[in-house]
Amino acid sequence: GESVGLHLPTLSVQEGDNSIINCAYSNSASDYFIWYKQESGKGPQFIIDIRSNMDKRQGQRVTVLLNKTVKHLSLQIAATQPGDSAVYFCAENPSDDYKLSFGAGTTVTVRA
Amino acid sequence: KAGVTQTPRYLIKTRGQQVTLSCSPISGHRSVSWYQQTPGQGLQFLFEYFSETQRNKGNFPGRFSGRQFSNSRSEMNVSTLELGDSALYLCASSPGWGTDSEAFFGQGTRLTVV
To answer: What pairing do the DSSP bridges indicate for beta strands A86-94 and A30-38?
Structure first.
């Protein structure tokens, strides 16, 4: 079946630098996308979402970009902090499908 | 506003037993979804309930079942447990699907089958 995937399984970032986490999706029917952060021993935490009628959305220190032409999603984290170390998942929701399909996740490690 | 609450947090069961996990969604949320998370398969969708009706089901055997009550609380049951059922089971609640689709997760129930 169609699935959401991430380009890189791991990402090491220097504290204070910006992070970019990428995700490719294959279901052209998806119209809603979410980024989650999961810390060890915890459930996924909602970070930011974007709908298919937008190409950019900004939150606090985070920006999500959506390129529907190439089915690509990215999460940018500004001024990465040690607390940003976690596994990041992108998820897509095909229209009227009542479920989220998750990518494999990118483990972000922030170096002091 | 309280978050999604899952109980118990940890469970150890023996092969062949059955188990019931519970999820209380965020107040006012009517949709509850269940996911299984394993290192090998990642996050996989189990099923989704809205107003006590199952609206979608993932590719899991019939040993996995669930239900939702009138107060939106949900339970999932796994019968005849297998070693491969060891996983983190996550529940997510959402106001609904469509305009307000943000899904918020609980901390999960860590099930270990021995």
So the answer is: antiparallel
